[in-house]
């Protein structure tokens, strides 16, 4: 699966998501920033992303997902401090 396809899926399903995707075979690295993450704990954020990618994970197209999830405020704080 191509990075652009994954990015499109996530942007269609997660409100106002800014998505960065790197694909290495069946391994996917994600950075997702969205206001949809407001008030969610890390597990709920992961579940939201896994829910979008569940079909691709189930059929083996995606074997492993490494994700970093941020609210817009968290992302702004992170980028200001770097």
Automatic annotation (TrEMBL):
Domain of life: Bacteria
InterPro entries: BolA, BolA-like_sf, BolA/IbaG_stress_morph_reg
Pfam families in the record: BolA (PF01722)
SUPFAM superfamilies: BolA-like
Family: Belongs to the BolA/IbaG family.
Protein name: BolA/IbaG family iron-sulfur metabolism protein
Organism, scientific name: Exilibacterium tricleocarpae
